[in-house]
Amino acid sequence: MPTTTQPRYATLMVATCNVLNLALPGRDFYKGQSPYSDTEFERKVAWLGERFGALNADILAVQEVWDEDALQQAVTSSGLRYNLVTAPGAENGPGQTGAQGTPRVGFVTRLKVESLESLTDFPGEAVINVPGLGPYTNFQRPPLLATLKLKHGQTVCALTAHLKSKRPKFLQDDDGNALEDPDDPAIQSIASMRSLLMRASEALALRLKIVDMLHRTRLPLILLGDLNDSPRSSTTQLISATSQVAYDRGALDHALFNAWDAQGEFGLRRDVAYSHIHQGMPEVLDQVFVSEEFLPDSRASIGDVRRMEVFNDHLHEGRSRTRSDHGFVRALLRLRLPEQD
User: Selecting from 3.40.50.1260, 3.40.50.720, 3.40.50.280, 3.60.10.10, what CATH number does the domain 9-336 have?
Assistant: First the structure.
């Protein structure tokens, strides 16, 4: 009688962390915000190092990095070893002064990196005219697309993003001075619409990249980051197209799925899953999405989502810029190993 060989799996731990303005001490980042003192910076790096160490992720997607050197110090403080710690656009080498204008996303991994691409310009289909601003043509915080190789040879792609926030986009001159009255309720509404349009344009640009990668392929893809809206919002659904699967099974091929919904160990779900608190209201902004290759009931399945966790206890300890105002989200994934001869 032939014997049935049980499949073997490799585990992959991934996490997304908005680190709240991680900058070197003494350097200005946002207008009107004082630089970190040496003491504040040491506290922030130590706190982040402790959190990174507890997460112990193979992939860390990081948002709000002003200085790559600061990210490197936080990772070093974790006591863990990583092959790559990077934040393109926030470098601190000779002649480089970190990110300017807005922070960047970072990427940390212990996996072998085949390639790392910074997505900057939108495809033409995603370019829109934002009232008062004109054509919106590129990401303010370019997402990072990493192609990674696991030890058993499987390729995995990880896409890290930080989309435009809901904060109203008021018009300013080149020096950052206001060009319109932020106390005018009509102007407030127009400024909020600008932010929505900008986030929607970024979402479409991401969506088109995802379709290009996934359509008629068997490439496992993980999307991690601060999408600045809820999983069921229009902009998040524009990126993932999860809802299309309900009436078009062919959309499985190029849709993404919230890892929270896809996880297999239902008993480990926690009722408290929010990653941010805004004006006293909990919300989910920091998310992990996966392609159908991580759905156990898909014909393309080569793995699954075992567990999702949100580390948010610090959100109730009082706001402090030496910590973060976001919870950190971690997912444990599995990928099936090739059968042995």
Answer: 3.60.10.10
